[in-house]
C-alpha cells in the first residue's frame, strides 16, 4: 500500500511523520449494506418472475429476469471481491505476496469486465425488443412451439455466452493482457503487459473488447431509440394530415359537422398493432420502464465503463510501479491509485444493482402484483383464512363446539377430515335454494319459515355433540317454469313479402357518416366511390333494422316441460329433504 508522510518544521528542525492509512471500516459497512439490499431485491424479483409461467412467456419479462440475474451476480461476485480487496489492502496482504492472489486478481478483473458487458448487452436487447414490437414484429409467436423454445432458451444463452467469450482471455493468459489491482475501485482491472509501455500489440485486445463489447450494444440501443422516435413522429405527422384533410372537406361542403378531437396521437396509434396481450396502458408502462432503465444505465454504469476501458487503451495514463516496488512482489499485485473519480464511478455501478429492481417493481404492474402475492404468502395463515371465509357455512359447522374449531395439531385435522369425508359428502346448507326439473317443468325448492333449534329432539341434540346433526326442516316447492320466444312460420312468410318494400323505403334515406378518420383516408387517396359505399352500408343497416322490427311482432310461448325427459318426483334427488341427509 502507498505510504504517506507529513513534514513538520519545529524549532528549526525537520520531523518526518508517517500518516496513518485511512480506515476501511466505513467503505466496508457501505459495501455490506449495498450488497444485502441489492441481493435481496434481485433474488426476490427473479424468484417472482421465474415461478409465474404467464410472465415467463413474454420476451420483455424474460429479458428483465436476465437483467436482475446479472445484478444479483454483481452483488455475489464483484461486491464480495471488492470487500476482500479492501480488507487485503488495509491489512497489507497483497504486499506480502500471498499465494493465489494473482489468480484471484485475474478472476476479479474478468468478472468485473464481463458483468459490465452483460448489462450493456441486456439493455440493448430490451431496447431492440421494444422497437420491434412497436414496428409490429412480435418476438414470441403463439402457436409455434419450436420458435418459442428457441426464444426461451436461445436468447438467454446468447446473452450470457457472448460476454463470456470476450472476457475469457483475461483469466486464461497473461500474455494478452495485464492485470493490476486498483485501490480506488476496490477491484482489479486490465493494463498494458509489455515491458516498454506503448507497444502497438497492447492495444489489440482492449480495442476488440471495447468495439465488440460496448460500442456494438450501445449502437443497437441508440438505433432502437431512434427507430421508436421516428415511428412516433411518423404517427403524429399522419394524424395531422388526416385532421387537416377532414377540416378541408367539411369546410368545402359547408356542413355543420361536429369536430372530434380523436385525431390526437393516442397509445393505440403510437404503439402500433396490438400484438401483445397486455392492455395499451400496460404497454405504455413497459416503454416507460425501458426509458428509466436506459437513463439509469447511462448515468451510473457508463462512466464506470469508461474508467475501466479507456485508460487501458490509452498510452501513458498510468505509471508503471512494477519496477519501483519490491523485487519479491509480483508485478500483478502492485496497486494503482487513480483518484476520487474512480471511487464515485464504482459506487454508482453498485447502486445500479439496487435501482434496477426498484424501477421494475414500481413501474411493471404484473410483476409488482406477483411480488406482493408472494410477500403476503410469507405471513402464516393468510391464504387459509381467506379461503375459509369465502366458503359457505354448512348446518353442521354452526353447531360444532368452539373448542373443536381451534385444533392446533395438523395430524388431528387430517384424521378429522378422513373420518368425516364420507359422512358429510352430501351435506349442504339447507337454506340454499334448489332449482330442479321434473316431468311437470321447473321447480324451486325454498325453506318454509325459519328452522328453529328448539324443535330438535333429545336424540338430535345428542348427535350435535358427535358432529352429526340430522335436521328435517320443512321445504316449499314452487313452480318456476320459463318461456322461449320464437317466431311463427306466418311471421317468417310475412317478413319475406315485406323485404322488397322495406329495402326501397330505406334506400331513399341520406347515407350516414361513420367517422372522420375513414372519410379523411378517402380524401387523401382522392377516391370518388365514397357515396356508393355509403349507400350500400345504409341499405344493409336499414334491412337489419326492418328484420329486427318484424321479429318483435308476435311471439309463441313454448313450455320448458315439453323438452324435459320424464323424471319421477321421487328420483329428482332434491324433492325429499330426508333423502339428502340420511
UniProtKB/TrEMBL annotation:
Record-linked InterPro entries: GPCR_Rhodpsn, GPCR_Rhodpsn_7TM
A Pfam entry, by short name: 7tm_1
Gene3D superfamilies cross-referenced by the UniProt entry: Rhodopsin 7-helix transmembrane proteins
Membrane topology value: Multi-pass membrane protein
Broad class of where this protein is predominantly found: membrane
Transmembrane segments: 29-50, 62-89, 109-128, 149-172, 208-230, 286-306
Domain of life of the native organism: Eukaryota
Localization, UniProt: Cell membrane
UniProt keywords, alphabetically: Cell membrane, G-protein coupled receptor, Membrane, Receptor, Transducer, Transmembrane, Transmembrane helix
Domain G-protein coupled receptors family 1 profile stretches: 41-360
GO (cellular component) term, any one: plasma membrane
GO MF annotation, one: G protein-coupled receptor activity
Family membership noted in the UniProt record: Belongs to the G-protein coupled receptor 1 family.
PANTHER family linked: B2 BRADYKININ RECEPTOR/ANGIOTENSIN II RECEPTOR, NEUROPEPTIDE RECEPTOR 15
Official protein name in the record: G-protein coupled receptors family 1 profile domain-containing protein
